[in-house]
Amino acid sequence: MTKKNILSALAMLLALTTPVMAQDVVRGLKTVLIEEVDTTISRRYPSVLVPADVSTMSFEVGGKLNEVTLDIGQSIRTGDVLASLDETSFQLDLQRAHASVEQAQAQFDSASETLARQKTLLERGSATKVSVDNANTSAVSARAQLEQAQAAYETAQKTLTKTKLMAPFNGFVNTVGVQSFGNVAAGATVATLYRSDSFEVKFTVNFDTVNMLALGKEAHVRLAARPSTVLTGRVTEIGARADQVSSFPVVVTVTDAPADVRAGLAVEAELDFSLISSPGYSIPLSALIGDNMFSDTSENAEVETAGVYLFDEATSTVKRHSITIFGVRNNQLLVADGLKPGDRVASAGVPFLREGMKVKLLADK
């Protein structure tokens, strides 16, 4: 049986049972209050704030450490000195490199003078071509030694600048891997840092929820210790495979955290989803007026118009009102048009009501 036939049969049944009542009876009226329909649903997941990115800090050169004053959780700023090496040996290397440059420069100057003198003697016939070639070879070798010494000096200068480990960004110390005055090798971890404004929240969702998620979806992260602080994040990772039965991993990244927010704080991630629902409102089948209440709105209408009684609070009466119905679900009429939040629709004893009848509103249960 089609929807239209069901509604028409219901109309006939109600019409046949409509009695005639006395004019002066004041009936109690049970109503349904039309309220705003939620269009979204929120789901919350407890988690912990973790660093979005942890950077490992190490020296490019090895050496003996000076005093290390780093503490886990310590706030650092870009350019802060995290640790430093004793510069004594590096200063000596620089001095030796500088002395090598001066020595190579003197040898090159001498070789150049010898070459010039041999060329002059050759022109006068007092020297041979072989002696000039030998002097030229010595000058070329001296130049190469000078360039090598200069390169070593520049390297020593650069190495000296690498004895200080600087913070590359604003953040916090995550771990410290060295102790004061110990020797550290090049590349060995001195400390790990994380940014002060970038965190992640990791949790798992069920199969239905993961199918509603998309990368970039907005999420809200509320601090458990300070509920008034709500951070805005975005979904940056969605697991394609469940870690456990029907538990898919999700990662939300937060990039607007205040300076006092630290990793390890307990948080609650909130995701909002749009509800897939029909438009309008639902009312009980018993709310329909039984006489002549359906009519097509067009030749091939998919919706029907019907009548209900609305309670008029100003006059304590009921008034007939036209609505548009587009279907029936779970003994509820789905109303497409004609009702608004705040309306009270008579939901019981409708066959005993008529236009303008005085009624007494019964309390909602």
What does this structure look like?
Helices cover 24% and strands 35% of the residues. The strands form 7 sheets. Strands 3-12-15-14-13-16 form a 6-stranded antiparallel barrel. The protein has helices at 3-16, 88-124, 129-161, 207-210; strands at residues 27-29, 31-33, 40-51, 54-58, 63-64, 75-76, 81-84, 164-166, 171-176, 183-184, 189-195, 199-205, 218-223, 230-238, 248-254, 266-274, 281-284, 295-296, 304-312, 317-329, 332-337, 344-346, 359-361. With 365 residues, it is of the alpha+beta class. It has 4 helices and 23 strands. Helix 2 packs antiparallel against helix 3 (129-161).
Map the helices and strands.
Elements: H1 3-16, E1 27-29, E2 31-33, E3 40-51, E4 54-58, E5 63-64, E6 75-76, E7 81-84, H2 88-124, H3 129-161, E8 164-166, E9 171-176, E10 183-184, E11 189-195, E12 199-205, H4 207-210, E13 218-223, E14 230-238, E15 248-254, E16 266-274, E17 281-284, E18 295-296, E19 304-312, E20 317-329, E21 332-337, E22 344-346, E23 359-361
Parallel strand pairs: 1-23
Antiparallel strand pairs: 2-22, 3-12, 3-16, 4-11, 5-10, 6-9, 7-8, 9-11, 12-15, 13-14, 13-16, 14-15, 17-21, 18-19, 19-20, 20-21
Helix pairs in contact: 2-3
